[in-house]
Amino acid sequence: MDRLSRRLKTAEQALNTLVKVLVERKTEIVRDAAIQRFEYTFEAVWKAGQLFLREREGLQAASPKAAIRACGEVELLNEDQVSAALQMADDRNLTVHTYNEDLAEALYGRLPGHARLLGEWLQVMIGPKPWDSGGN
């Protein structure tokens, strides 16, 4: 398995942990766990995007926002997804402040949308499965 495939698999595993916690009954501990899982899932997905851009597109992106913008330029993300992903990057930067209850609640409320977007971003990098015949 090549480096990009490993990075994509790691990101997919991280996303699965986030999705799994988001279906749990919300408690303070579940909320905090979900925020932590979002944090590491975002890191795994943007770093997969960074490597994808370097290996498949010949582009360098040194930061999450640069990777998001570059993914938009090569049409891995559409304009709306780029905008939402940039907001998601801002939310990732706020995760260190979740001792603030209001902020933690607001972040938690945005996690389902973030998880959906991370999944879409990841899926376009992974591509169709060999057995997926495009709906035939």
CATH architecture: Up-down Bundle
Q: For the record, what is the CATH homologous superfamily label?
A: Nucleotidyltransferases  domain 2
Unreliable spans are none
Helix and strand sequence: HHHHH
Shape category: globular
Largest sheet: none
Observed structural traits:
136 residues, mainly alpha, Four Helix Bundle (Hemerythrin (Met), subunit A), 5 helices, globular
List the helices and strands and how they pair.
Blueprint (H helix, E strand, L loop, with lengths): L2 H20 L5 H30 L6 H10 L5 H16 L6 H26 L10
Report on the structure:
With 136 residues, this protein is mostly helical. The protein has one domain (3-125): Four Helix Bundle (Hemerythrin (Met), subunit A), CATH 1.20.120. The chain has helices at residues 3-22, 28-57, 64-73, 79-94, 101-126.
Can I get a quick summary?
With 136 residues, this protein is mainly alpha-helical. The protein contains five helices and no strands. It is 75% helix and 0% strand.
